[in-house]
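Board notes (copied after class):
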Amino acid sequence: MFEKNASANFKKHAIGIIALGCLAMYFSCCLASDALNIIEPAFTEKMGWSFSSVSVPFTIANYVLIILSFAFSTYILKNGTRKFSIAAFSTLALGTFLIGFAYSLSSDMYWIYLVGAVLTKFAAQMVQMVCFQLCANWFFSMRGRILGIITIAAPLNSATSITLLTLGKVKFGLTACYMVITLLLILCIYMAVKFGISRPEDLGMTVDGVETPKDESTQESADEIYHTKWSIRKLLTIPETWALAIGFGIFNGAIGPIMGFFLVRMAEIGVDTNLALTIISSSSLIGIILSYVFGYLDDKLGTPVAARILGVTFILACALFYIADADHIALVWIASIMMASIVGGTPNLHPSSIIHVFGAKEYQAANRVISIIVGILSSFGVQLMSILLDTTGSLNIGYAVFAVLCTIATICMFLVRKQYIES
């Protein structure tokens, strides 16, 4: 996986970064998204709260993150990753602890749950941001495959977390489950201290661990402060900024509706619930492999080509969900596998595409602007599908609309042609 002449010290540190990244991706996807399937009915049943009361802190935090992500990126750009990674995992551990603790209290202690949920949502994005930046700084020739390995945790989470939390809640209780996760996140804090070093140069190593730095990986003083050349105004004049922002804004916005309405669609077209659960679980496991495949394509064919393939996968998934029914179950399987692959492929190719265009050093400078546009566009995905379902009584129009939107996003990937990396 690593370069043949990579140093032993680099390989050890790189494995630590990969492990930290996998844990970050798994727990962030679980705690800020999939766990809602467990905590919503749990808190509603015990506390008497409404479903919206349980979910609204995550929704509020999601909108705040559209702006707050700019501040996060700016901090990483100016101060590096180590302190930020420690703060990110500490915040995620605190948020997780507060949610579990709130479940053991009375219903009038809602504010503790609210604080825990907001912190968890904030931290989920923080840990992903810092791990993507570590990949940008430490890897070059194998960056796509490293990101592919890390983002495997997303479909792995989809395949396992709800089942594990359900079994854990039944046997030990929800509070105990969240306390165990908190302990695991404390371990992640220790790993962040050890492996959250901003750049290989800070430890006397080079990108990819080779003796001679490659391309953009020039030797710098470990104490040197990097000043970005990209102002916000300048970034907004670059066509690639808008192509990446619109494209991945749509892609990220489409994942929620495609995944979140799967069981609803299966019921609509007459697929048995048990079969539907088997399909989504099996597809998620296959998606684990396909996540790495997108990373491999990234390295071998180039990021733009891999991103275009991702776009075509989105389009085909929407089209197949539109035409598939219980009499054509093979189409349901193919659509589900494509659905699982985009769950891992999108978080892989999103940061990789920004790095490809602007370079590793300028990743956060570009990402802090692009992420705002992505956040705005992606925030409407689930609501749009819900409105279309309520209006028409079917998901057909929804899948047709998202197929068109994903076609626009794929065209955006074809418009990413230039690189702005200084040698």
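Comment from the instructor: The CA atoms of residues 73 and 364 lie 5 Å apart. DSSP finds 17 helices and no strands in the chain.
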